[in-house]
Automatic annotation (TrEMBL):
Segments passing through the bilayer: 153-171
Signal peptide (residue range): 1-27
Highest taxon of the lineage: Eukaryota
Name of the protein: Protein sleepless
Annotated keywords: Membrane, Signal, Transmembrane, Transmembrane helix
Originating species: Adineta ricciae (Rotifer)
Length: 176
């Protein structure tokens, strides 16, 4: 009986500490990798990705549609694709190049699709601070876990699953 009471107190303590951490973290932005292709021939943003060349941006801030200023980011994004066309005022040297873009967002740009990943044709307006837009054929992924825009496969979910399984095994080892 004494062991049962100790375990319950321990579990209640862990739940309270976790809820405190979650509350504190909720006021901060998600941490994302931020980079973009500036030179298709020498691209430190491409896959395989190196976090040594592009360190993670903690408490990422971004603008929000219809609002002034920056706000804590809720999502990380990765866009990769081959440029299929450029506007007349855009940089024509990007035509047929593969570009990478990793950043953070406040707004869910995938809200209309109800999916977190999408492949197809995308238009980037104001890419690299250029006037006009570029159209690319590729992949776009959105996620909400720190550092999840590192690679196409979002591996952060795997670490959470492993932790939960380990924790469940640990708890089930106690007998009442």
């Amino acid at each position: 009986m004494h062991l049962y009471v100790s375990i319950n107190k321990w579990l209640i303590s862990i739940v309270l500490q976790c809820s405190l951490v979650i509350k504190l973290a909720s006021s901060q932005g998600v941490s994302c990798f931020q980079c973009m292709t500036t030179d298709p021939n020498n691209d430190s943003c491409q896959d395989p990705f190196s976090s040594l060349l592009n360190p993670i941006q903690t408490n990422c801030q971004a603008t929000s549609v219809g609002k002034n200023g920056t706000f804590p980011a809720r999502f990380c994004v990765k866009i990769v694709g081959r440029v299929t066309s450029v506007d007349s005022d855009a940089n024509a040297s990007y035509l047929n190049a593969i570009i990478y873009y990793r950043s953070c967002l406040v707004d869910n740009i995938m809200d209309s699709t109800k999916a977190l990943e999408s492949s197809g044709s995308f238009r980037l307006k104001g890419f690299q601070s250029m006037t006009g837009s570029i159209r690319l054929q590729g992949y776009m992924g959105l996620c909400s876990v720190d550092g999840c825009n590192r690679a196409r496969g979002f591996t952060s979910s795997l670490s959470v699953i492993i932790f939960v399984l380990f924790f469940m095994k640990f708890i089930s080892g106690f007998e009442y």
